[in-house]
């Protein structure tokens, strides 16, 4: 299958070619035709599958093809759980829409609202937003969502995990009933299915990455260690490597500790988590992507949705409490067809968590030995 077979417009195809995409990913091939046809969509897919383009490309064409319901109105809303993800989706709309005249902007909390409000005042067609700030601005009467034609709820499962359900439910009645809705979630537990039912009309279902197969391409290894050995193991693994490594910590405090330990050992690293300012997180991410910082230490929420092309190694310094989070974490590597390595440290008291993960992924991880 080629992009040319998907009935996308010439300006969008040109932008896609410039992005270097040769053929549509499975979710793009499956989702673009129904979205172009105006159908609601229920997409079971995680970040890294090309899901952003799967909704952004047909949305751009649909919005271009029809006139706005009201002049100057916001026509599309994409709701996403984290600032990083919002910024990335914003960049994607800019890139894919570069030969079109639609305007998009991104709003999220943790930074001053004035520049965001100024951007909105200038008029935007496509709004990419995190729920907290969006509700804030709606509450202040600075935003009108009554002319939305297309609504996207991205990473619905993560939204619920992060406690955004009330925000979402508050927003829904503000959207017009007659609209196109696209709903994405990596996992489909019962509460997500219920939420999707309340929002979608006769949706097309697209499921591209059963959790297990998404991680098949990744070389996964586990080190069974005692807790005090973790630090030495991390330092020795990082000393053997010259590739970019993303290290996951379960807690913010832990992330800071790990980063400090690495600095002391002469390994340049930075930590990102919810207590760091938005500017700090952005700078670290840019430096990490450009290779200026080789090791980034992150908590799950801070790393959620971060798109680092060709990240080769992920290290789980701690195991996550929820097995699905393991899949999200290691999904940072091995993206869009690249192979990757995920190394996991497991202490004796983390063994039950390890078992849950192996049950979820249906894969027994290769055990590595470590002797300090
Ligand atoms: P996403 O799942 O939307 O976060 O996309 C994951 C990564 O895949 C991003 O870096 C995209 O730029 C890239 N990507 C999306 N679609 C394609 C494609 N058809 N071919 C190659 N790379 C793609």
What are the main properties of this structure?
372 residues, alpha/beta, seven-stranded parallel sheet, 16 helices, 14 strands, 41% helix, 17% strand, globular, binds adenosine monophosphate
Q: Please, could you describe this protein's structure?
A:
With 372 residues, the protein is α/β, with parallel strands linked by helices. Helices cover 41% and strands 17% of the residues. It contains 16 helices and 14 strands. It has helices at residues 10-18, 26-36, 51-65, 83-96, 114-122, 131-139, 156-161, 165-171, 190-199, 211-214, 230-240, 252-264, 278-290, 300-303, 323-330, 351-361, and strands at 41-44, 76-79, 104-107, 126-129, 150-153, 180-185, 204-207, 218-224, 245-248, 269-272, 295-298, 313-316, 340-346, 366-368. It has a 7-stranded parallel sheet with strand order 3-4-2-5-6-1-7, with helices on both faces. Helix 2 packs parallel to helix 3, helix 3 (51-65) packs across helix 4 (83-96) and helix 15 packs across helix 16. The longest helix has 15 residues, at 51-65. It binds adenosine monophosphate (AMP). Adenosine monophosphate binds next to helix 3.
